[in-house]
Amino acid sequence: MEFKAKTVPKTVDPETISAKMNVWPDCYYREMEPAIRRQLLDEASRQGLTPEDNEIREFLFKKRYQLGKHGYIDSFLKTWMEFKYVYGSGNGSFSIKKNQKRIRALFKELGEPEIRAMGERAVEILSREYEHSGLVYITLSSTDPSYRAVIFGLGSVSEERLAQRITADFVVAAKVIPEQLGMTEELSLWIEAVKRSLRTAYPDTSL
User: Fold this and answer.
1) 118 Cβ partners below 8 Å, 6+ apart?
2) Which of 19, 74, 143, 193 has the fewest CB atoms within 10 Å around its CB?
3) Which long-range contacts (CB under 8 A, 24 or more apart) does 19-27 make?
4) pLDDT per residue as tens digits for the range 20-41
């Protein structure tokens, strides 16, 4: 599954953005489109809403999204592909050490060490961003024909089977790999956040 936009960034008119501000910052975490999130964050800053928190959100936005000629690339979604790669790479002692290094480098790239140095409030905001990335992953998976396809691409799976596939990905990313690498405590912020994502989408499912 590819997590890069195929069209120009989607935006909405300023009036629509302004109307959403009465539920700031929840509107920011409900929005899936990076370009609209950019508009929301800019408008919140213009209105002087939660200015200190917005400095942290601005830092995370720049860490998470890169704007290319075809749209935004979501670096936080790279975590899902990395966990899948590690899952298939073996669990010998050499592989474990190599993959520990790989995962630590990934979360450093996402800005977690810098966020932790900023204090408790910054960590809370990062947790919400991780949770949001989990919801985006679920949304993209649910609408991606290749993800939903059955063998040889003939037809698509049922909603129940789709939920099972997505849940399996979450089990790998939030349970299997952290446990295999001995990184459950180190990745606890990520783990708890994406568990919330899964519960939001599928309330009857748990890890």
Assistant:
1) 56
2) 143
3) 21/47, 21/49, 24/49, 24/50, 25/49, 25/50, 25/53, 25/57
4) 999 999 999 999 999 999 999 9
Q: How far apart are CA 62 and CA 158, in angstroms?
A: 37
Q: What is the rounded distance in angstroms from the CA atom of residue 135 to the CA atom of residue 141?
A: 10
CB-based contacts of 41-44 (< 8 A; 24+ apart in sequence): 43/14, 43/17, 43/18
More confident: 114 or 206: 114
pLDDT digits (tens, 9 = 90+) for 156-174: 788 899 999 999 999 999 9
Confidence bin at 154 (pLDDT 50/70/90): low
CA–CA separation, 143 vs 159, rounded Å?
11
Is residue 73 very low, low, confident or very high in pLDDT (cuts 50, 70, 90)?
Answer: very high
Pair 14, 40: CB distance under 8 Å: no
Span 118-129, pLDDT tens digits: 999 999 999 999
Compute the CA torsion angle 118, 120, 126, 128 (nearest 10 deg).
Answer: -160
Reported as type and span, the H/E element at residue 68 is strand 65-68
Phi first, then psi, for residue 149 (nearest 5°) are: -70, 145
Q: How far apart are CA 152 and CA 143, in angstroms?
A: 18
Displacement of CA 3 from its chain's centroid (Å): 11
Q: Do 21 and 47 meet the contact criterion of CB atoms below 8 Å apart?
A: yes
